[in-house]
Amino acid sequence: MNIAYLAFNTDKPPLNNPAVRHALALAINNQRLMQSIYYGTAETAASILPRASWAYDNEAKITEYNPAKSREQLKALGLENLTLQLWVPTSSQAWNPSPLKTAELIQADMAQVGVKVKIIPVEGRFQEARLMDMNHDLTLSGWATDSNDPDSFFRPMLSCAAINSQTNFAHWCNPEFDSILRKALSSQQLSSRIDAYDEAQNILARELPILPLASSLRLQAYRYDIKGLVLSPFGNASLPGFQEKADEVKKP
């Protein structure tokens, strides 16, 4: 499972203001990203958890695309001539086949609301180190894991400790959020964990340290004349029940 997202550097004004982050998010045409970048091979993200996760909040809402409202809110915040740097990896990623093209589309969207975005390409092996210098304003990034535990998304991406471990590119630290993650991990009841992760997702929707963009789908091909092949959302295939369909087996 994976998630592609736009991270706001919450350590830098004016992006330390959630209202500014929400206003900028309104400018991004996510539907166009889906059509121009993924070509039907991804789902639009409403949460940092992919829909395949057992803790996914079914009430999560995709951020609306409303450039007029974005411009209005930015004006009210006194940010009519804002310039931001968007750092972006140069090569294809598991969560985004074309990061640079994605950055260009976001740049065009931001221009429509009066925000100038300078794209800064960053080589993959230097990206994490440079992002932890905290000089960026925005960055395109993503996360992938073969674990179905929601903690494998929440903790490495957005916990306070993840800032020092260089995986929290938003540099966002929220003690209440961290406390909820600890509560979820300590519970043995699935329903209690789901409730806790719902709380966590509500905090993220309110604070918006990162804007979820897309969850890439795993595409796997197999022959039409087989049955019993079970595919998992993690890309694995279960083979014990695998066999050719009887009516498709060629007779000698």
Give me some keywords for this one:
alpha+beta; globular; Dipeptide-binding Protein, domain 3
SSE topology:
Elements: E1 2-8, H1 18-25, H2 30-38, E2 42-44, H3 67-76, E3 82-89, H4 99-112, E4 115-122, H5 124-131, E5 138-144, H6 151-158, H7 161-164, H8 175-186, H9 190-207, E6 210-216, E7 226-227, E8 230-231, E9 237-238, E10 243-244
Helix pairs in contact: 1-3, 8-9
Order of helices and strands: EHHEHEHEHEHHHHEEEEE
Instruction: Give the rounded overall mean pLDDT.
Output: 87
For CATH, the homologous superfamily of the domain at 2-146 and 209-219 and 226-236 is named as Dipeptide-binding Protein, Domain 3
- What is the architecture of the domain at 2-146 and 209-219 and 226-236 at the second tier of CATH? Roll
Largest sheet: 6 strands, mixed
* Residues in helix, %: 25-40%
CATH fold-level name of the domain at 2-146 and 209-219 and 226-236: Dipeptide-binding Protein, domain 3
Fold and architecture overview:
With 252 residues, this protein is of the alpha+beta class. It has a domain at 2-146 and 209-219 and 226-236: Dipeptide-binding Protein, domain 3 (Roll). Helix content is 36%, strand content 19%. The chain is built from nine helices and ten strands. The chain has a six-stranded mixed β-sheet with strand order 2-6-1-5-3-4.
